[in-house]
Amino acid sequence: MLDKRELYDNFDQLGKKADELRLTIGDTQDSIRYLIEKNAELEIENQHLRERLRELEDKTTSKNNATGLSKSRQNLEKLYEEGFHVCNVDNMYGSRRINDEPCVFCQDVIYGERS
Theoretical Cys-Cys bridge with 86: which of 14, 44, 48, 76, CB 3.0 to 4.6 Å? Predict the structure, then answer.
């Protein structure tokens, strides 16, 4: 059986542990609250970015449709704009254009008339 002093000490330690637990719970609640707010902000920002991306894709699609390029020519145009040859003159296809210089042969492959 515990004497009065041990009983009091145990009860005092239990009170201190309860106070520590309350502080830990409060800190955890603050962290969760912050994370929920941050998550909501990021979801809204993500939604705005997706809407903006859709707008840009729609503009690009309408631009490409206005130029009348087929999907394969659009892919070639994209490669060309990234700095690569798309013509097969002197086996240049796929090689990097020096200083992104224009290439009339590549442009003919992309924009030229086909029979």
Answer: 76
